[in-house]
Write a structure and sequence with these properties.
Helix content is about 45%, strand content about 25%. It is an alpha+beta fold. The radius of gyration is 18 Å and the shape is elongated.
């Protein structure tokens, strides 16, 4: 039966979890789900003063997303789509800021001709950096390091 659980049912389970958590902590927020593509479900909370749920550089949000995913996987063990949690539009703002930062570093690499290693970052943030640099002629990227020390290097194209 679990094989027949729909994306909508998974989205509902994730939404109910996030609504329950917000209520338990006394936050007033609305929660909406969006089916982003064939295997990604976004659960987004909007409200005032939700910064505590984002945490420093999104660390609390990442943990919240992991817990939401675990809750959904527990209910639907045989099939679970990717669950993405956002709070107060943080993810979109983070992508925009990371793109601006990457473009600035890319300009410095182009001017100096010297590669530059960025700080360790999450897989999602590394993807934003790689995608941003791909749009800039004369540069390349590579990921280096292991686990929490994994980072992107922006280099002049060979």
């Amino acid at each position: 039966m679990a094989d027949e659980m729909t994306r909508e049912e998974q989205a509902t389970a994730a939404r109910e979890f996030l609504e329950g958590l917000l209520e338990a902590y006394g936050y007033e927020a609305s929660v909406a789900t969006t089916l982003l593509d064939e295997d990604v479900i976004e659960v987004a909370a909007e409200g005032n003063e939700l910064g505590l749920l984002v945490g420093p550089r999104g660390s609390t949000l990442a943990a919240l997303q992991d817990v939401a995913r675990t809750v959904v996987q527990h209910r639907f063990p045989s099939r679970t789509d990717r669950i993405v949690v956002d709070v107060a539009g943080y993810r979109q703002r983070r992508v925009a800021a990371l793109r601006r930062f990457t473009q600035q570093i890319a300009e410095e690499v182009l001017e100096s001709g010297t590669e530059r290693a960025l700080e360790p970052m999450s897989p999602a943030d590394r993807k934003v950096v790689h995608d941003t640099v791909t749009e800039i002629e004369g540069l390349s990227t590579r990921s280096e390091g292991e686990d929490s020390a994994r980072h992107v290097v922006i280099a002049p194209a060979s």
